[in-house]
Amino acid sequence: MKKSTSNTYFWSGNEACAEAAITAGCRFFAGYPITPSSEIAEHLAKRLPQIGGIAIQMEDELASIGAIVGASWAGVKAFTATSGPGFSLMQEGIGYAFMTETPIVIVDAQRAGPSTGQATKCGQGDVMQARWGTHGDYSAIALSPNSVQEMFTLTIKAFNLAEKYRTPVVLLADEIVAHMREQVRVPLPESIEIIDRRKPEAGDKAFFGLEEVPPMPAVGEGCNIVVTGSTHDEYGIRVTADPVPHRRLVERLNSKIQNHADELADSETYGIDECEVGIVSYGCTSRSIYEAVEKAEKKGIKTGFARLRTLWPFPDKIIRKLAETAKVIIVPEMNLKQIFYEVERAACGDSRIVPLNKIGGGEMITPEELFSKIMETSRK
């Protein structure tokens, strides 16, 4: 009898995210309850103590981001989960994590905003905030799952990328994917790649430079490390007036992500080499593309798509390839054209970019609506 290589569970997206964090080696969670991410905290409050981990309900989101930054520097993998209003409150702490090169994961289960908005309804309005939410020059990594299975796999990937590049990583989920239930296949532990931060070797003293991604000691390991959100040199010493170390530091913080943009780009593509109509989608909205494309092709319209699992850094090359053949590219979103303008920029005028937007009430863009837009644009 063939030995099974995986186990199957029936989880919600939030449960899958919590279990994936544990699989990735996370042993510290700090968060404040907020719809629609609260089930992650609830699940981990039960599960983490069972394996020697810690889950803490903090007094607010500012405390939550501070706690996981501190836990990461104490040597453990740490993350938090929130939604739009909490994500807004975390931005200064996230900026501090970028500046101090602290590997953490922030899960944002998006809901309809701005402000309190429609707290129980889905939205995709945090896309630009995930890239530009904090001040200064930095490069972000943000991943976008469209299923419960991907809530599991991309959570592990988020931890791996955070550890590999010593940077915050955002898992930009949404209410629909967070709350839906599906079967999840979990590979056996020995077949899952887990990346841990590189630790210093004897004699290492430069923990903020000299290399693209420097080694990271934990506080208390005897490395006499200085951690500051102010401009600092390779050894962590504050340098707040000299432009040279500031430029050197900030350029490296950006280049260590941008130099690997092609490697970080992750998408599911279909028919992008020969399509008349292309679709660029992500998150829950992308669940409608499969049926819509099948209907369009039955009507004789060559239709392709690029479903983005990586939103930031933006996968320009994938969009450029699609724009080389597609006369029209449709961008369906549950917001008012946040990724649309990135697609328009990357297409360089080679395709007509058409938005398909829906906000409020948590209603998805249906396959029928997307199919209608394909038919409408193909006739022009």
Describe the structure.
The protein is α/β, with parallel strands linked by helices. It folds into two domains: 6-191, 3-Layer(aba) Sandwich (Rossmann fold), CATH 3.40.50.970; 265-378, Rossmann fold (3-Layer(aba) Sandwich). It has 14 helices and 15 strands. Strands 2, 3, 4, 5, 6, 7, 8 and 13 form an eight-stranded mixed sheet that branches. A five-stranded mixed sheet has the order 10-12-11-14-15, with helices on both faces. A two-stranded antiparallel ribbon has the order 1-9. Strand 7 (141-143), helix 7 and strand 8 (168-174) form a beta-alpha-beta unit.
Draw up the topology in text.
Elements: E1 6-12, H1 13-23, E2 26-31, H2 38-47, E3 54-57, H3 61-73, E4 77-82, H4 84-89, H5 91-99, E5 104-112, E6 118-122, H6 127-132, E7 141-143, H7 148-165, E8 168-174, H8 175-179, E9 181-187, H9 243-258, H10 261-264, E10 267-270, E11 277-281, H11 289-298, E12 303-308, E13 310-312, H12 316-323, E14 328-333, H13 340-347, E15 352-357, H14 367-378
Parallel strand pairs: 2-3, 2-4, 4-5, 5-8, 7-8, 11-12, 11-14, 14-15
Antiparallel strand pairs: 1-9, 5-6, 7-13, 10-12
List its salient traits.
380 residues; alpha/beta; Rossmann fold; 2 domains; eight-stranded mixed beta sheet; five-stranded mixed beta sheet; 14 helices; 36% helix; globular
What is the helix/strand order?
EHEHEHEHHEEHEHEHEHHEEHEEHEHEH
For the largest beta-sheet, the strand count, sense and barrel status come to: 8 strands, mixed
Q: Kindly state the number of beta strands.
A: 15
Radius of gyration: 21 Å
**In DSSP terms, counting alpha (H) and pi (I) runs of 4 or more, how many helices?**
14
CATH hierarchy: architecture of the largest domain: 3-Layer(aba) Sandwich
Residues in helices, as a percent range: 25-40%
User: What is the end-to-end distance?
Assistant: 57 Å
CATH topology of the largest domain: Rossmann fold
Note the beta-strand portion: 15-25%
- Mass-distribution shape: globular
**Count of discrete structural domains:** 2
Q: Let me know the CATH homologous superfamily of the largest domain.
A: Thiamin diphosphate (ThDP)-binding fold, Pyr/PP domains
Uncertain segments are: none
**Mean pLDDT across all amino acids:** 96
Structural class: alpha/beta
CATH C-level name of the largest domain: Alpha Beta
